[in-house]
Write a structure and sequence with these properties.
The structure holds 2 protein chains of 2 kinds. Chain A is an alpha/beta fold. Chain A contains 10 helices and 9 strands. In chain A, α6 packs parallel to α7 and α7 runs parallel beside α8. The longest helix of chain A is centred in the last third of the chain and has 15 residues. Chain A is globular and about 50 Å long. Chain A starts with 5 loop residues before the first strand and ends in a 5-residue tail after the last helix. Chain B is an alpha/beta fold. Chain B has a single domain, classed as TIM Barrel, CATH 3.20.20.140. Helices cover 38% and strands 17% of the residues of chain B. Chain B contains 10 helices and 8 strands. Chain B is globular. The chains are: A alpha/beta, B alpha/beta. The interface between A and B is medium-sized, with 32 and 36 residues.
């Protein structure tokens, strides 16, 4: 049993295609998950800005906001400027290049991301669903922005070879394990890249949280490695910012 | 008792399976308390049903009581089928590109053994509506709808389509499934119609077991789903 469990990928709010809990806290309680990094579903399925407002209004230290950023020219972006992103103080932001139809490695997105950090404070980590991009595009992003920490959400299991290539080439890429669900897939990645590159996350309630939570208790890894995946790696990904 | 209705051994061309071995599965089963898993060899699901079935039977013989065999029937190759020493027959209409309701499967239905078939909502080969069709034609053949249609958007429809066919069981493995959906299916179809599977080694057995173990179910319903139903439908055939 890990000492502390933090879900790096959780949703709050309604989805248009199912009747799912809008509040993640009862499921967190039921499954013994201490905290979660949360994105609001309005940001994914409606208006990014409205979703971020709803997210910050949750105002519960147990639910750490992961607001959605839509880089773009003035009038086509959320929020208005990179400075507004910095003002949020979020330790991680989410980018949805497919859903919001922008170029993840285009000049505007790169300028926005470059503007999110400064000498005093590193930029927030960036979470991207692999279904919204490709390993090649993430490799390009990591190469163009050295030091930018990236969390790959929903990596799945069918692209394990490409995911491994990405992790081998881009040391600032972390991977969420909730969907790495072929037999022994998590241990295979841990053996090659270290448990410190793997992060517990579920994508619940759209994706399953029961299986990944159970997996944490049954990994064929040392207790230290399991603790890293359950919460420790995430802290490193977030850069210790608080 | 945990009985896993849907398992495999072997490699698959689409992606890397880090541990495709029977020994790896047994080690995982021992850790999790899984009594037995029904397997089809992935070679058999692919191009060589006869050879893959032989390998599955060898594995079952090497690990007595731990593996049941779903012998794969390839309708194009008219695979020879055994009547003893197996759990039943595995069909994969999508890989074999032969609709579940195609007459080419007649030798399978005539055999009368339980059938586990891949089910995939909106697939031209294995949509749940085809399970209702063949269940009506062969009401005495226990038929497991693998993955309950695979996509969450089709789970409820799958349950509705086979509601009037008590010989059809909803088998719940799949990368898109959730603990919440297993509980919903128990509510929609009745827990006695829901059968546990993991799709290991294709998928990680621990995720499948955990999905059921932590699903919001009563203990009685969980017991039926995790083994009671499968033991009942296999009768004396299970290890």
């Amino acid at each position: 049993m890990p000492k502390l469990i933090v879900d790096a990928h959780r949703l709050a709010g309604p989805v248009p295609f199912d009747d799912l809990p809008v509040d993640p806290r009862p499921d967190l309680d039921r499954l013994g998950i201490e905290r979660a990094l949360v994105t609001h579903t309005l940001s994914l399925y409606s208006d990014a800005g409205a979703g971020n407002d709803a997210l910050f209004a949750l105002s519960d230290p147990r639910l750490e906001p992961v607001p959605v950023v839509v880089p773009g020219v003035p009038g086509a972006c959320t929020p208005a400027t990179p400075a507004d992103v910095r003002a949020w103080g979020a330790r991680m932001v989410r980018l949805c290049p497919e859903r919001h139809r922008f170029d993840l490695t285009g000049p505007i997105a790169l300028r926005w991301l470059a503007a999110l950090g400064d000498a005093a404070e590193p930029p927030p980590a960036v979470a991207v669903d692999l279904g919204e991009t490709s390993p090649a595009q993430l490799r390009t992003l990591a190469g163009l922005l050295p030091g930018q920490r990236i969390l790959v959400l929903n990596p799945g299991y069918r692209r394990l070879r490409a995911l491994a290539e990405l992790m081998a080439e881009a040391p600032d890429v972390w991977v969420e394990i909730g969907t790495v669900n072929t037999q022994g897939g998590v241990e295979w990645l841990a053996e090659r890249f270290g448990a410190g590159r793997l992060v517990f996350g579920t994508g619940a309630p759209v994706a399953d949280d029961c299986g990944p939570r159970f997996l944490l208790d049954h990994l064929d890894l040392t207790p230290h490695e399991t603790d890293l995946i359950a919460a420790g790696s995430l802290e490193r990904l977030l850069g210790g910012r608080r | 008792m945990i009985l896993d209705a849907h398992g495999h051994v072997g490699t698959w061309p689409d992606f890397l399976i880090p541990d495709p071995t029977a020994e790896g599965l047994v080690a995982t089963m021992d850790r999790l308390g899984v009594t037995a898993v029904g397997i089809s060899h992935l070679l058999a699901v692919g191009p060589d049903a006869e050879g893959g079935n032989r390998l599955a039977l060898e594995i079952a013989g090497k690990h007595p009581g731990r593996f049941g065999v779903w012998q794969v029937y390839n309708p194009h190759h008219r695979t020879p089928l055994a009547t003893d020493g197996v759990w039943g027959v595995k069909l994969h209409p999508d890989v074999h590109q032969c609709r579940l309701d195609d007459p080419l499967y007649e030798p399978v239905w005539r055999l009368g053994l339980p059938v586990l078939a891949h089910g995939q909502t909106d697939s031209p080969w294995s949509d749940p509506a085809q399970f209702a069709t063949v269940a009506a034609r062969h009401p005495d053949v226990p038929l497991l709808m693998g993955h309950t249609g695979l996509w969450p958007s089709g789970f409820a429809r799958a349950a509705r389509l086979v509601d009037g066919h008590p010989n059809v069981y909803l088998e719940v493995c799949g990368s898109q499934s959730t603990g919440r959906w297993i509980a919903r299916l128990a509510s929609l179809a009745g827990a006695e119609r829901v059968v546990f599977g993991t799709d290991a080694c294709f998928l990680d057995m621990r995720l499948g077991v955990g999905r059921l173990a932590l699903a919001p179910l009563t203990d009685a319903d969980r017991a039926l789903i995790q083994g009671g139903n499968l033991a009942r439908l296999l009768g004396k055939g299970h290890p």
